[in-house]
């Protein structure tokens, strides 16, 4: 359930693990609607929580906005994006709802946090991400990179409710720089992953920027993503570096400068979301709610 680790090396293993998507986003939305009906069985929680975290500039907020765009059918923005001189644009803990083009609020929310920095004193402290996993952080709390939240702070939630806890941890990692990640960064991400697994929380990795200097074929046509040996190697590197198996790593291309939605981008985004919903369903069925 998003926790096992395997290291397939051959192209045959890669092709067996990865499904060739149906490049029709409408079909995926219909499948997701059916999947999400499992939430109707849980009257004590109306929306499950997905926590996005990762290095500064990895594309956390961009993915959130890309999910919104896929559901709206137009380019949509809500979470502020961008970095300044290597600093995280996101400073505070914030929850985002997803509302589709029919004004229906979907039964999940995203939690967005400050990005991780390369050094101990940069970016969000791993302990604060773990605090978020437990539901201990109040909405709007401003993160302090050198001093994580303690139980003496008024922003600390002593008795978190189920709706405040995280039900899936999503690490966002840029494909074009994963091989350049420093040891400190890797250790931070592994610390958070291990904390999630200890809590039984599923862990998924979104590999962003797959069309930015990684593979010319994919840059030209996103439909080549699961045929690309270069993408295969990046996914394997991601698995070896951070921990999850290939089944839990999803290549995506966020909306950035586009003015219209693109079916292929939408399909990769929605495919990742569909997998997340599947992991959360398993999490709930195993008695974690």
TrEMBL record:
Matching SUPFAM superfamilies: P-loop containing nucleoside triphosphate hydrolases
Naturally occurring in which organism (per UniProt): Tachysurus vachellii
GO BP: immune response
InterPro entries recorded: P-loop_NTPase
Name used for this protein in its record: Interferon-induced protein 44-like
Family annotation (CDD domains): Ras_like_GTPase
